[in-house]
Every structure is written in C-alpha cells, then in structure tokens.
Amino acid sequence: MRRLVPLAALAAGSASAVPAIPAMAADAPPAEQIVVTGRGLAETPAAPAYDVQRIERERLLVAASGRIDDALSAAAGVQQFRRSDSRAANPSAQGLTLRALGGNATSRTLVLLDGVPMADPFFGYIPLSAIAPERLGGISVIRGGGSGAFGAGAVAGTIAMTSAGPDQLGLLSGSALANDRGETELSGTLAPRLGQGFAVVSGRWDRGRGFWTTPESQRGPASVRARFDSWSTSLRAVAPIAPDIELQARLAAFRDERTLRFKGADTGMEGQDASLRLVGRGAWAFDALAYLQSRDFHNTVISATTFLRTLDQRKTPSTGAGAKLELRPPVGGGHVLRLGADWRSAQGHTIEDTYRLGAPSGHRRAGGTNSDVGFYLEDDWTTGPLVLTAGARADRWSMRSGVYELTDLAGAIQPGSTAYPDRAGWEGSFRGGALLHAAGAIDLRGSVYTGLRQPTLNELYRQFTVFPITTLANAQLRNETLFGFEGGVDLRPLPGLTLGLTAFDNDVRHAIANVTLNATTRQRQNVDAVHARGIEASAAYAARRFTLAASLGYTDAHVRAPGQPLDGKRPSQTARLAASATASWQPADRWRLALTLRHTGAQYEDDLETDVLAPATTLDAFAQVPLAGPFSLVLRGENLTDETIVTRNSGGSQDLGTPRTLWAGLRMDMR
After folding, report:
1. Which single residue of 396, 443, 523, 646 could bond 472 by disulfide (Cβ 3.0 to 4.6 Å)?
2. Is the entire prediction scored with pTM above 0.85?
C-alpha cells in the first residue's frame, strides 16, 4: 500500500514514520520514561514533497520467491541491471536503479539498511541474497531527489529499508520450504525483549540445483543449471542508555555461491558487516552512526566456445567504512533544521589469474581507494497548509592509489601496467520542495534537486568479459551528477483509497555507459547525459481484510552523446514501461492469500539497440493457511504461467529467467 514517507527521515536512516517521543513527567518512574523503537529520527514535515512509495511488511512476506529483489518489484521501475533474480545472476550485475537511469551494472540508487549503505565497496552491487524480506519492517522507495545524509550515490533515488522489531516478528518465528526442483529455504528469527531493550537473532539458508538459464536448443556438454547455495545471519540489539537516547548495534555475515551457465563457472560473494548507531530524541535530537564492512567476491570465467577456463578472479577483497552525525537543534518558529556531516571510504583490489588455452598465463591486479566527505543542512518550514523545504550539501571526493598491474607467471611486471594519478575535488548539490495540503483529501507537491555519484573502483580500474564482449575500464571517468525536477498529487477520494501521480524530468550528466567500440569491445565512458522523463502512478485500497496495491512507471529515457552511435538511443537494459499489482486477502487471523501480476516492457541488450529482450508478464501467488498451534501451511507459486523471460541476448545467445516454480512448507509464529 502506498504511503508517503519523508525523505529527510530516510536519509537520517528511518524508513518509516516514527512519531516524536513526548517528554515524560519529571516524577514518572524510570521504566515509563524509556521508549525504545530501534529506528532513526522522526520524519520531517516536508519530506512528502518527494515521490515516495512505501512497501509494507505484509507485501514483503507474500513475495513468491521469498527474496528481496522480488519484493522490491512492488515499486514499478525498481530493477537490477539484468532481469535475472538473485539466484541466477552474477552478483556483480546486481546494481539497482530507478527511472530507467541504467546503462551499466552499478547501482545508481542509494540502498540503506537502518541507515547504513549496503553497496559493495568495490563493485557497487547490492548483496541481495543477504537481505531477507522476513527480517524487515518495511521499505521506502524514493525515486530521484537525492538524499541528505550519505547523499552521494543517490542519482536515481534511494531505497531505505528498516529492520523489524519484536512487535512485528514475535518471540520466535521460522519457516522451512521446498520447491518442485527439490530446492530448499530455511529461515528462523528469535526476538526476545531484554529489559527495556530487545535483541533479534536471525539466520537463513537457501540452496538448490537451480533451473536451466540456457535455452534447450543452445545447451552443450558443458551447460549446467544455475546452482546456488547461500546463507546469511545477523544479530541486532537495541538498548536505552538514557530516557531519550538509545543505542543500536548490528552484526551480520553472509556467503553466496553460484554456478552460472557452464560447469566450472563458479561465482560467489561473502561479507561481514558491523554498525553502531546512537539516536537521541530529546530537544536537541541527534543521529550518530558508524559502520565497517569487509567484503569479497570471486568469479571463474569459462569460454563459451572451448569451455576452458579463461579467467580466475580468485578474490576481490574490499573494505567499506563510514560515519554520520546529524543534529536537529530546537529552532522553533515552525522550522525543523537538520545539520550534518557524513564520510564514506571504499578500498579494494581484484586479484586475477589469466589463462590461455586452459593453462595459466599471468596475473592481474586492479583497484584503489575512493572516499567522500559531505556536509549538509536542510530546513523545513511549516506555515499554515504550506510546507517548504530547502537544503544543500558539499562533498569533498577523492580517488587515490589507482593501479592496473599485469605480471607474468614469474611475477615480472608486464607492459600495460599503470599507476594512476590521484584526483580530488569539491562538488555542491541542493534540493528544495513544497507540499500544499490543498484540502483534506488532496496534497500537491513539487521538488527540484541535484545529486552526485562517484565511479566505482570496478568502473575505474577493472575490465571484464561476457563472451563475446570485453568491456574495458576507464580510470579517467568523471563523477555523475543529477539535475531533476518533478511534481505530483496525492488523493484520498474515499476511505481506504489512496491515489498518486507524479511527472518527472531527470538528467544524469556525465553518465557512465558501456560504449561499443567495435564488434567485441566496449568501454566505460562518460556520455553527455542520460535523460529520463515520464510519469509514475500508484493506487492503494484497503477495506477490512482486503488490500490492493498497484504501481506503474512509464519512462522515456535516452542517451545524449552527440557524434556517437548511441546518441538518442535508450540506455541498455532499461524498459519503457513497468507495472506491478498485488491483491491480498486475509479472511481470518493468520490466513493470507495474495496474487501478484507484474509486467516489464521490452529492453535492449546493448547501447546500440542491436538485440532486444522481449517484454514479459508474470503471475505469482502466495497462500498461508493456519494449522495446529503456531504452525501454518505456506504455498508459493512463481511465474505460474511459465512465461519465457529472456535476461540476456547477445547475437542470439540467450539466458533465461525463473520458470514456473512451486513451493510448499511450514511456517511457525510464536508470540
């Protein structure tokens, strides 16, 4: 169901509206003075000036695949670089984007979990298999608009996720399911209250032989199913340290192994994350956050003609670190003022062995360090039915220690090895908007904004090959910058019915695209811009035990690159039309029935619109039926009509997406 959620609160790390905690009476007992939420600061008044779609926990729980990328599709236009889901995609292609502002595999969308950026420090992909929908309290999707805290990176929008607490999870919950291919999914969560705080311990394990991603007519002796084996675990603790101050801590670890297309083409990722957050809700409200991430990635490339190993990307160790401090002083006069600073650093290198005719031929090492320090301020002013907002930030960015090194088997440096000069600079950005409560059932909104995204270490320094195309890196890439504006209206014409419509115009300047140089070579280059304009519509209806939520995005996007063959063409891997609708019915407690219809329009494989990916429409289903005690029967169906979903098409060589898949199992909920 669609609900407007303030961008300011999300940028501070809150993904849901949290009411301000009132001051307690001086003589109240200490136990009554402490209220723990596990969330960030409350929303600010003008945040609904930006286009926000809320994905509630109930929608997350009925995702037919049980995976976060499926759940995110409830917001039409959220997409990975390719249509493959997180069981059958190369992790390095799991970049999320919005508004058809794609064109490469890196996330142009800032993805936050409890305020912490989730992107891989080296590649910029999102570790989707490590984010389990059942652990979340909700997600807010903000298309465009940039962000305040950790704002660098949000040139296509922000996806802010909030972890669920004991009220949503219950004391003990878990599920065990299997599908018609014999694949399994196990998950469990323990969420006890500890004094006036709480802890959440959760784990999940998914494994299976996978489905055939290669069409039957194109399979050979080396073709295999898309095998997957992934696990993730997390520990989150929230405790009060004063009547209006709480400490939030999170530890997480994950590992994901996949085999893609050919025997021996193994790929995988792993990580360990830690974060500490201090939230104060007194007169001088504040949000202080620090995090550390250790990530790794490996990938073995198998030739599509000889079926021999051509590259062993043995490891890609990377480290991400960051911190944020936001202060909201009590200025009064209808104003909510935010002052803040944030810092991020990403360091990593890929370590690879090259092969010729199946035998080792040399070694390759590439990487460096990127960092960003940002300072921002924003003020919301409420005067009668009108709320105005304006903010600005300044970013000091740097790209340091860049290297591309080739060595032979004896370790001698080879021609082509380069150490790149350091670069740094300042970049300014702003945003402003207005929200008018024109009547009890009508809100009018408008906004204008700019934003910034640094190239990733992968884009700057590492080349890769997806047969028969080699894509070269480019250490001279410039930062991408966003300029955009939008206007919209939100209507509540009947009880339980909410309608929203937004028109937008977004321009990502110096956009990084994979530009074709010849039949077998592309290079990451800054083009003049990717320009997208279109409309986004949403509808939500809730009546007793029935809900209907739908969203649609229509985007006219094209690349602006004067004098180049891709000028005027649509960015690769982006659809003009995307739509999603979910109908859910709860006839009684613990019952849940849901159907989801999803459509993705035609996309092009490459920047020259040579190969097309046909449109796809899928139907999913979910059912939960209570049994004895805390147990329920769970049935799920993915792609019930068995639609053919083409996820890659390179000169007729294709990969396919998820076929019809049926799941059954048990769920336990103990309150």
Report:
1. 523
2. yes
